[in-house]
Automatic annotation (TrEMBL):
<dbReference type="InterPro" id="IPR006311">
    <property type="entry name" value="TAT_signal"/>
</dbReference>
<keyword id="KW-0812">Transmembrane</keyword>
<keyword id="KW-1133">Transmembrane helix</keyword>
<keyword id="KW-0472">Membrane</keyword>
<feature type="transmembrane region" description="Helical">
    <location>
        <begin position="21"/>
        <end position="41"/>
    </location>
</feature>
<protein>
    <submittedName>
        <fullName>Twin-arginine translocation pathway signal</fullName>
    </submittedName>
</protein>
Length: 180
């Protein structure tokens, strides 16, 4: 299960260090709402600031992204980058309403929310129930480029990038298929 915590936007929180916040989240073992403004991973050094969407919505989008395009070797921070573009005033209504509708579906399946479903197979069932909605289609379509256009993850897929600047694929291994 991917754990996500929500950290406060106010950087002047007294008595709670970053380390303390992360250790509390790890001890809690689930989504821990501490305030508003940031979504952070308890087991890694990354965070995503939200300006328009609720942090819970952003956390749901990150989990959705992982469930729609699951790659065990890709860290959550890459999924966070892929959905960061939805933190936009022009898309906020569609995204907030879509996440609310997804949580209603989760409640119909016996969970408190989409994020509360601990098993991927349960979340995939919920996603299939909304897959024809404009919300799901927008998120899924945006993930194709939002996730796979991140050059940092290309080596994990064995993709070397575009080949035009290096003379094309023909002279760079295109015809080295020895298994046919």
């Amino acid at each position: 299960m991917n754990e996500t915590i929500i950290a406060p936007a106010d950087h002047k929180v007294r008595g709670l260090t970053r380390r303390g916040l992360l250790s509390r989240a790890i001890a809690a073992g689930a989504l821990c709402v501490v305030g508003t403004g940031f979504v952070a991973a308890p087991d890694a050094a990354w965070a995503v600031e939200t300006t328009t969407l609720k942090p819970e919505t952003m956390a749901t989008l990150i989990q959705m992204a992982r469930d729609i395009y699951p790659h065990d070797r890709i860290a959550d921070r890459f999924y966070a980058v892929a959905v960061k573009g939805y933190d936009d005033p022009e898309q906020a209504a569609l995204i907030e309403e879509g996440v609310s509708a997804l949580d209603v579906v989760a409640k119909s399946q016996g969970f408190d929310s989409y994020l509360a479903a601990g098993w991927e197979k349960d979340r995939v069932v919920m996603l299939r129930m909304i897959e024809h909605s404009p919300f799901f289609q927008r998120v899924r379509a945006g993930l194709v480029t939002g996730l796979y256009n991140q050059k940092e993850i290309w080596p994990l897929f064995g993709y070397e990038g575009e080949s035009y600047s290096q003379g094309g694929y023909i002279n760079r291994g295109f015809n080295d298929i020895d298994w046919l």
